[in-house]
Design brief:
binds magnesium ion; alpha+beta; binds guanosine-5'-triphosphate
């Protein structure tokens, strides 16, 4: 296969209809990178022998060592089918849950995706997660069921069993898609109903409820994966083969004389071949017949595997000649039968053909971007499309046209920044010489040689006849010239070395981006729009026709930059480009001072920022880092800044204590960030603290029973111990606390007095607040703009309806005497005005509240009462909330016991256990406190000899039921737990650990009767 030249790729970039931007998505280890290898080898970039072993797109050293992908990377491939040429921009993504943010960055730039599923493991948690991601971004999926060879070699299934197994996998995956689809239809239906309700208010006509509108009506057949739709490929990436059923339909239509269209419909499903009648009949199972798929497809593959594995030379020969293949002696005599197998299979059913032709025929080109997706991309937060300024709404057509005309506005989205060694940039690399340059050099060398020869001759001549001075003169000048040349050459070497060293130390950032409209050119000036940029605001100040080259007034969240370099992304290599037309994925250099992680670039100030990426993983694992040598601090600070820019998900911050903190998605992610920091970005030795575990604090209702299940109030208190408990919650003077927890506190100048009471919110309210955080943020923005300038914003009717609905729901959930009128008295949400806490006021007649955007009243609301809130919280029973992971572990029956042992040792709780159909594998769903999770995956892997490996995903916060301040107060408790309550109190353990880290006072048990201990040890 010939390597496709950059020139050719540039040509293909111009034809948007032939472009496919796709990514490969799957659960960890299902074979994405191996599949990508096979596709890359079809373009001659790597040899087909190495495909699957090289894992070309895993270009980092740690990716190769650990065998998992950590960064998504892109490569452009060329494919030809049916006389049409295609450019495929392929992005390989990581499957490990810690790196799921890399998946989000990849999915945003694509129009379609290949979902890979391991034929043995089937649908796994990350498979579901990536399907959801694809769904959220409105991109179309196709399916590759990979590792079919494992069904033959490892599970030793018969073709019939394998068929049932594959059918099962398809059902599972379609069930996931189905549930995504149903939830969306229901949502839309609810929305429509709400709309029709509001319209029926005005038009008081008869409302006929249309029952059929909804699920039954909506055609969803194109969403499902089915081999007869042509969106499923069965494959074994490691053995280099793959096929869609149309391949076999074509093959057998000639052999058995049945139309390909008929075969295409019947090859998958419960049909069988009636050989006598030469007809395809339905109902294989009831008649005990082999389904067509088994008879015509799987049987053949199975017998090939059998023949090669058993080294049945005759049979292999027969198969090879009947298929018309040519196998070299090197492969057929290889000691490893797998090599032989690979050679046969990859010629017979080349996986790249099957997958790429499915991609080209089933996945959309950039021209097919849907209006729905465009609107979604353009509307940030709870804003709706029709609330955008008209100039902005007009841009929708630019997206839909995806045009590369001069007049089309340029719209580019940068989904992440990635660091490359400055050495690896094309302009710093020795580049192969062109023909002319080679000719030129040859000419120069010839001249030099001729010069030397002449000089030598001259010398000889001058030595002989001393009278001929002239020739001596030329000779010496020639020598001088030579010396000069040498000197400048040396200088060049020195300076280039210095430059190289400098380049060595420098990291260059490349933006991973896609052009949605227009043509980007090198050296072009363009607006960089931050996520908070608001076109409505800037269009007041700027004219919609202004360009980034004009001298413009400053606008918040907008800057101008020059596109310094454009690159074609070719896996480990970058190729320089002069311009990139709409519809392509590209790399952009020179943005590192303008873009932190992601951004929207446009030539039009009316362009809105794209919606933020949907990140599934929440950064939760924090560590503090410091340099080993304090003098290295500046490098660390710089390194952390670079790391932050290079990773979509990591957070770096400086805590109040001055500690530098890294927040990462999980242990593997943490390790990668630390390695990057040490070896690339800071290049210093660093020491890392133990993970800092996050906790939240909350209050609960007072318990009705005590720790020994006695009703509270009836027991006799133990006076002495009771005293200590009172001490712990000691409240300073000047603050009154009543029996119901109402705290009253005066300001130091005694001008004002505040009374605050803390109450636990009903759980549904907390959930409601968390779900609506976007809406609350929008309300906050509206309120501020109302306070500043009454008419700055026209509030969109839909948003208003949403706010009203939210208010109603809150009212429904805040019922009872305690919460009377509470919703109207909401002063603020918190923390930072949008969290799951509510601040209520109790002033009768006081109007100011969060609902002012509905009422249009204005007044200031400012009050700081940190102290009062703290004491109010302390006056109630306090509890810690722990961050919880969910994990799904697959384990065989024999290691199940050990998995449970590890789980229970680490305070894990099993939620569900079920057996995977058709296998002896159990799936265990459990929750585990983040605090107990460090080393969990490793421990499980070790205890089960690598048979089970869990992935942990942050799921929720959970109240730890024990009271961190608890001490025995009644006689029974005292008897049961002892004076010091020595038995484990999980909450206290966590609390003390935090206090210790913060250098706060920790009350710990001290050995009180040391003498007794001495008598125990006799050897003293
Ligand atoms: N038996 C078999 N093994 C395969 C096949 N494809 C891939 N593998 C193996 O599965 C392992 C994982 O393959 P990768 O391609 O790295 O998987 P991945 O999906 O890229 O993994 P992550 O990027 O870490 O999510 C490797 O050891 C491959 O050799 C296959 O078709 N059959
Ligand atoms: Mg991979």
């Amino acid at each position: 296969m010939v390597l496709t030249s950059v020139g050719k790729m540039m040509g293909l970039q111009q034809k948007a209809a032939g472009i496919r931007n796709i990514c490969v998505l799957a659960h960890v280890d299902h074979g994405k990178t191996t599949l990508a290898d096979c596709l890359i080898s079809s373009n001659g970039i790597i040899s087909s022998r190495l495909a699957g072993k090289l894992r070309y797109l895993d270009s980092r050293e740690d990716e190769q060592v650990r065998g998992i992908t950590m960064k998504s990377s892109a490569i452009s491939l060329h494919f030809e089918k049916g006389g049409q040429e295609y450019l495929i921009n392929l992005i390989d993504s990581p499957g490990h849950v810690d790196f799921s943010s890399e998946v989000s960055t990849a999915v945003r730039l694509c129009d379609g995706c290949i979902i890979v599923v391991d034929a043995v493991e089937g649908v796994c948690p990350q498979t579901q997660a990536v399907l959801r991601q694809a769904w959220l971004e409105n991109i179309r999926p196709v399916l590759v069921i990979n590792k079919i060879d494992r069904l033959i070699v490892e599970l030793k299934l018969t073709p019939q069993e394998a068929y049932m197994h594959l059918k099962n996998i398809l059902e599972q995956i379609n069930a996931v898609t189905g549930s995504l689809f149903t939830s969306k239809v229901l949502e839309e239906r609810a929305e429509k109903e709400a709309e029709s309700e509001s319209s029926s208010d005005t038009a008081a006509g008869d409302q006929i409820y249309d029952w059929s509108a909804g699920l039954e009506d909506t055609d969803d057949s194109h969403l499902y994966f089915s081999p007869d739709h042509g969106n499923v490929v069965f494959a074994s990436a490691i053995d280099g083969w793959g096929f869609g059923i149309e391949h076999f339909a074509k093959l057998y239509s000639q052999k058995i004389g049945i139309k390909p269209a008929v075969l295409l419909k019947t090859l998958w499903g419960d049909y069988y071949l009636n050989t006598k009648a030469k007809k395809i009949m339905k109902g294989d199972q009831s008649k005990g017949k082999k389904p067509l798929f088994v008879q015509l497809v799987l049987d053949n593959i199975w017998s090939l595997y059998e023949a090669v594995m058993k080294r049945d030379k005759e049979k292999i020969e027969k198969i090879v000649t009947s298929l018309g293949l040519k196998i070299g002696p090197r492969e057929s005599r290889h000691a490893d039968p797998k090599v032989h197998l690979n050679a046969i299979c990859s010629q017979w059913l080349p996986i790249s053909d099957a997958v790429l032709s499915m991609v080209c025929s089933k996945l959309p080109s950039p021209l097919d971007i849907t209006a729905e997706r465009v609107e979604k991309l353009m509307c940030v937060g709870a804003k709706t499309f029709d609330s955008l300024p008209p100039e902005t709404q007009e841009l929708k057509s630019a997206f839909l046209r995806c045009s590369s005309e001069e007049t089309a506005p340029v719209i580019v989205f940068v989904s992440k920044m990635f660091a490359v060694d400055a050495k690896a940039l094309p302009h710093n690399k020795p580049r192969p010489l062109t023909q002319e340059e080679i000719a030129q050099r040859r000419e120069l060398a010839k001249q030099r040689h001729a010069g030397k020869m002449a000089a030598n001759q001259g010398k000889e001549v001058s030595e002989k006849p001393p009278s001929e001075n002239s020739s001596e003169g030329t000779g010496s000048t020639g020598d001088k010239k030579g010396e000069e040349q040498q000197l400048t050459d040396q200088m060049d070497v020195v300076t280039s070395k210095a430059a190289k060293q400098e380049a060595d130390n420098k990291e260059s950032f490349i933006a991973f981006a896609r052009v949605f409209s227009g043509v980007v050119r090198r050296g072009q000036k363009i607006f960089v729009l931050g996520p908070k940029y608001d076109p409505a605001e800037s269009l007041h100040k700027l004219s919609p026709q202004c360009s980034a080259t004009d001298d413009l007034p400053s606008v918040p969240h907008m800057s101008c930059c020059t596109l310094e370099n454009l690159y074609l992304l070719m896996g480990r290599e970058l190729e320089e480009l002069e311009e990139v037309p709409a519809g392509n994925v590209l790399g952009i250099g020179g943005l590192q001072d303008f873009v932190l992680k992601s951004a929207t670039l446009s030539t039009s100030p009316a362009c809105p920022p794209f919606t933020p990426l949907n990140f599934e993983a929440t950064p939760i694992v924090r560590v503090a880092v410091e340099p080993k040598h304090p003098s290295d601090m500046p490098q660390l600070v710089r390194g952390m800044k670079l790391l932050n820019q290079a990773d979509p998900c990591v957070q770096v911050l400086i805590q109040e204590t001055g500690e530098h903190v890294l927040v990462t998605a999980g242990e593997v992610h943490l390790q990668r960030c630390l390695d990057d920091l040490k070896e690339r970005f800071a290049k210093i030795e660093i020491s890392v603290s133990a993970p800092i575990i996050p906790f939240r604090e909350t209050i609960t209702r007072p318990p009705k029973v005590d720790m020994v299940n006695e009703e509270i109030g009836k027991q006799q208190k133990v006076a002495v111990i009771h005293q200590t408990k009172e001490d712990q919650n000691k409240i300073p003077e000047g603050i009154q606390v009543d029996s119901d927890g109402l705290v009253t506190i005066s300001t130091p100048n005694k001008q004002a007095t505040l009374s605050v009471r803390a109450l636990p919110l009903p759980e549904e309210v907390t959930r409601l607040l968390e779900e609506n955080s976007d809406l609350i943020r929008t309300m906050e923005q509206l309120s501020t703009s109302l306070n500043e300038d009454k008419n700055a914003h026209e509030i969109n009717q839909k948003t208003m309806d949403k706010i009203k609905e939210f208010k109603q729901k809150l009212e429904q959930n805040l019922q009872g005497r305690k919460w009377r009128n509470a919703v109207d008295h909401i002063w603020s949400f918190g923390p930072r005005k949008c969290g799951p806490n509510i601040l209520l006021h109790k002033f009768e007649g006081y109007k100011n509240s969060v609902w002012q955007c509905l009422e249009n009243t204005e007044k200031e609301l400012i009050a700081t009462m940190k102290e009062a809130c703290r004491y109010a919280l302390q006056a109630k029973p306090q509890r810690l909330m722990a961050a919880m992971y969910t994990c799904e572990i697959m384990a065989t029956a024999e290691v199940l016991g050990r998995v449970y042992a590890v789980l229970s040792k680490r305070e894990g709780r099993v939620l569900q256990e079920e057996m995977k159909e058709g296998t002896d594998v159990f799936i265990i769903k459990a929750v585990l406190p983040v605090a107990e999770s460090f080393g969990f995956a490793d421990e499980i892997r070790k205890r089960t000899s690598g048979l089970a490996s869990p992935q942990l995903v942050f799921s929720h916060w959970e109240i730890i039921s024990s009271d961190p301040f608890w001490v025995p107060t009644t006689e029974e408790e005292y008897l049961h737990f002892g004076e010091k309550a020595d038995s484990e109190n999980q909450a206290r353990k966590y609390m003390n650990a935090v206090r210790k880290r913060k250098g706060l006072y920790v009350e710990e048990k001290i050995v009180e009767h040391a003498e007794k201990q001495r008598t125990l040890s006799r050897n003293k």
